[in-house]
């Protein structure tokens, strides 16, 4: 059924249709509307056979999900930003224990300075935790990916994060097609755990493993991700067959035929990128794009296939490894090992900074003329940065940098006091 | 025949031998059919109070629930000595997740049991004092406040023993640990304000809170059995001496635990819905010195010149407990 609803509501409805048995909720912007929606459905009796538990922290939220999943229940939670960091230890633990928990990340920047707006720093901080990470491009895809995520998680016995851009998707009202319960039931069978806490057949779960076996255990975690490289496209194809919609998969190429420049990005910004590409194609520029849906496992071969005939790759990422450079570009470079091709890393949209069509167009034109630095920060205010650096050279007690920058910018608040 | 004096108690204790009791009054451990939930062969140290306490507690819980128990274990000695794969001493479904989340994982297991209709299966979370009173405290309080149907067992040996005897919030004043060495003008642990987790548990108004000691195993079995007859969040704080960390003789574990009780330093009581409903009176009151002197962690209090001021502080704590809980009886 088509509905004009908020992205968070769309995800809540997808979760409800997936028949979750335990949902753990802890508020953090911008994922909160999702668990609010689910809480309402449980309270109203619309979502039955489901325990909705309000916990005292994100660490507890994922820990409750770990207990529930290990005891044989389909478990779900959602978080963002600091919340994901606060549960970090449990994030690794859930993957290590092989528990098929599904968790939504409403992607948001990480402080300090505290910032509630969108970028991908939070999910990226957990990229090596052993979870599958799927990035949604639209609210429809966010909805679809959650249904696929439970199936994927349970087939592999591995937790899955569905990442969606905070505010841009979570708070956007768009028309989405919400499938019927019958459709979802036909796609997603009941949860059959590989290991379970069962008084009839007692096992010890989560005990210590020494050097004699740890390597093999870790290799098998990697192997599961490699299997996911096969399974993700299969489940996406099956989804299309049953729901009539393209959603998920490893990557999505857009107008890459004969493209000299290919832009790689994750999440909702891909929509803006595609619009700019349409404009530039109309103007005769050979440019295309690739959206990465599955960041973990990282689709090395699929990317290589689509990128290898281009002349240059521009990786547009809403995150970066401080002191190194791009995070996504690292993987992209890996996929192109042995192939000589110009690569540009562009860090954009940090902390919710708008990524405009005009800026992207300029950026892609500069890249096309090979006039880009290898790593650039889109729309960085160079004046304010150099002023701050200058100030630091002659003042020891500079005070909070962020405040100084806002005063320099002359924002309304800085005019007071 | 002349009148004979029959000794009902073992020498130096007030423990009645099982053979003098009717069968249904005998302890869980006296039964050859007991479950041995924590089986032999584990790697606990000689004289480990925690291993003893855990076996008695879980076996009692097993008997009370017709063996329908799932246990969640915090990281710590109990987790490590009982399990390195491929071995396990646990005869029950058992999960270890992290150091600080046992109470929350247990809440998740309970939720799963409820939602799958297996409400006859009961859930226990257990950890040491570090995993309970320090790093796991947030999750513990959350589980209490939601009144989740979990019995949480804290085996309190008063420091982080698994990592090599470092101070926890349950370490008593003056005690020497690896992070509170017995040097300087105030050797050993600082005399802070303390952190009484049983009382904090009571402040949540949960249905049942109790303290127990390996010196009084019948009492421990009784309290665990009682707790399993109640639904909602329950907490039992068990005093378990650690020969390694306390610098005591392995053979003295029970003796030291008893001196802690008899001196008033570890009061035994029960509380329901936030009110104290029972206490175990002290039978033979002893000064705290007798407890302290058996442990090398307090040796610096008894040097050439005994640290009478700090010993008096410890005695004052014991006296306060005795007054507060009415431990001398009526």
Structural notes for this entry:
- The complex is a heterodimer of chains A (417) and B (330).
- Chain A is of the alpha/beta class and 417 residues long.
- Chain A has three domains: 242 residues, Thiamin diphosphate (ThDP)-binding fold, Pyr/PP domains (Rossmann fold, 3-Layer(aba) Sandwich), CATH 3.40.50; 127 residues, Rossmann fold, CATH 3.40.50.920; 25 residues, no CATH class.
- Chain A has 15 helices and 16 strands.
- In chain A, the strands form three sheets. Chain A has a seven-stranded mixed sheet with strand order 3-2-4-5-7-6-13, with helices on both faces. Chain A has a six-stranded mixed sheet with strand order 10-12-11-14-15-16, with helices on both faces. Chain A has a two-stranded antiparallel ribbon with strand order 1-8.
- The longest helix of chain A has 33 residues.
- Chain B is an alpha/beta fold.
- Chain B has a single domain, classed as Thiamin diphosphate (ThDP)-binding fold, Pyr/PP domains (Rossmann fold, 3-Layer(aba) Sandwich).
- Helices cover 33% and strands 13% of the residues of chain B.
- The interface between A and B is large, with 43 and 42 residues.
- Strand 9 of chain A pairs parallel with strand 2 of chain B.
């Amino acid at each position: 059924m088509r509905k004009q609803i908020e992205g968070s509501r769309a995800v809540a409805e997808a979760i409800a249709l997936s028949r979750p048995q335990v949902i753990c909720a802890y508020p953090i912007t911008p994922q909160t509307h999702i668990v609010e929606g689910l809480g309402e459905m449980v309270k109203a009796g619309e979502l039955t056979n489901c325990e909705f538990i309000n916990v005292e922290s994100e660490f507890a939220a994922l820990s409750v999900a770990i207990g529930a999943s290990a005891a044989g229940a389909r478990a779900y939670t959602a978080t963002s930003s600091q919340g994901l960091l606060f549960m970090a230890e449990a994030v690794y633990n859930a993957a290590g224990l092989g528990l098929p928990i599904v968790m939504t990340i409403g992607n948001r920047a990480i402080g300090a300075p505290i910032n509630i707006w969108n970028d991908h720093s939070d999910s990226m901080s957990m990229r090596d935790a052993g979870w599958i990470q799927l990035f949604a491009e639209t609210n429809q895809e966010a909805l679809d990916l959650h249904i696929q995520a439970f199936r994927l998680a349970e087939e592999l016995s591995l937790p899955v994060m569905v990442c969606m851009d905070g505010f841009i998707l979570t708070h956007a009202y768009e028309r989405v097609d919400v499938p019927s319960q019958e459709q979802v039931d036909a796609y997603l069978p009941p949860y059959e755990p590989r290991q379970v806490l069962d008084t009839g057949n007692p096992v010890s779960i989560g005990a210590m493993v020494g050097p004699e076996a740890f390597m093999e255990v870790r290799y098998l975690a990697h192997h599961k991700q490699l299997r996911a490289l096969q399974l993700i496209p299969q489940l996406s194809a099956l989804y299309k067959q049953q729901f009539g919609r393209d959603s998920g998969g490893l990557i999505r190429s857009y107008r890459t035929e004969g493209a000299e420049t290919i832009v790689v990005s994750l999440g909702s910004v891909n929509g803006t990128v595609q619009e700019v590409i349409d404009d530039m194609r109309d103007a005769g520029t050979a440019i295309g794009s690739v959206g990465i849906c599955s960041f973990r496992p990282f689709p090395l071969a699929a990317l290589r296939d689509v990128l290898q005939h281009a002349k240059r790759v521009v990786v547009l990422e809403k995150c970066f490894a401080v002191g190194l450079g791009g995070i996504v570009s690292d993987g992209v470079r890996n996929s192109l090992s042995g192939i000589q091709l110009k690569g540009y890393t562009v860090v954009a949209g940090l902390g919710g900074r708008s990524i405009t069509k005009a800026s992207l167009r300029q950026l892609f034109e500069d890249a096309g003329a090979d006039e880009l630095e290898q790593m650039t920060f889109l729309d960085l205010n160079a004046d304010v940065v150099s002023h701050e650096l200058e100030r630091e050279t002659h003042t020891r007690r500079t005070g909070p940098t962020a405040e100084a920058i806002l005063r320099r910018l002359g924002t309304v608040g800085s005019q007071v006091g | 025949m002349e009148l004979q004096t029959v000794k009902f108690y073992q020498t130096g204790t007030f423990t009645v031998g099982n053979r003098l009791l009717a069968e249904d009054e005998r302890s869980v451990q006296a039964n050859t059919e007991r479950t041995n939930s924590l089986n032999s062969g584990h790697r606990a140290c000689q004289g480990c109070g925690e291993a003893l306490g855990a076996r008695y507690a879980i076996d009692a819980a097993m008997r009370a629930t017709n063996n329908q128990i799932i246990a969640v274990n915090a990281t710590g000695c109990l987790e490590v000595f009982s399990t390195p794969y491929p071995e396990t001493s646990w005869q029950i479904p058992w999960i270890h997740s992290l150091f600080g989340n046992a109470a929350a994982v247990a809440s998740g297991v309970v939720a799963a049991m409820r939602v799958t209709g297996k409400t006859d299966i009961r859930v226990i979370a257990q950890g040491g004092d570090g995993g309970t009173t320090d790093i796991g405290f947030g999750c513990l309080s959350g589980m209490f406040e939601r009144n989740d149907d979990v019995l949480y067992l804290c085996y309190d040996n008063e420091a982080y023993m698994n990592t090599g005897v470092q101070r926890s919030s349950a370490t008593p004043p003056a005690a020497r640990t690896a992070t509170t060495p017995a040097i300087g003008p105030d050797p050993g642990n600082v005399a802070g304000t303390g952190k009484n987790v049983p009382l904090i548990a009571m402040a949540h108004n949960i249905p049942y809170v109790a303290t127990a000691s390996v010196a009084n195993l019948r009492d421990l079995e009784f309290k665990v059995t009682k707790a399993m007859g109640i639904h909602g969040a329950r907490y039992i704080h068990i005093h378990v001496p650690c020969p390694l960390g306390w610098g005591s003789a392995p053979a003295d574990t029970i003796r030291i635990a008893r001196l802690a009780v008899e001196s008033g330093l570890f009061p035994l009581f029960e509380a329901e819905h936030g009110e104290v409903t029972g206490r175990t009176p002290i039978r033979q009151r002893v000064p705290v010195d007798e407890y302290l002197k058996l442990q090398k962690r307090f040796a610096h209090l008894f040097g050439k010149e005994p640290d009478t001021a700090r010993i008096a502080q410890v005695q004052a704590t014991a006296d306060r407990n005795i007054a507060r809980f009415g431990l001398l009886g009526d």
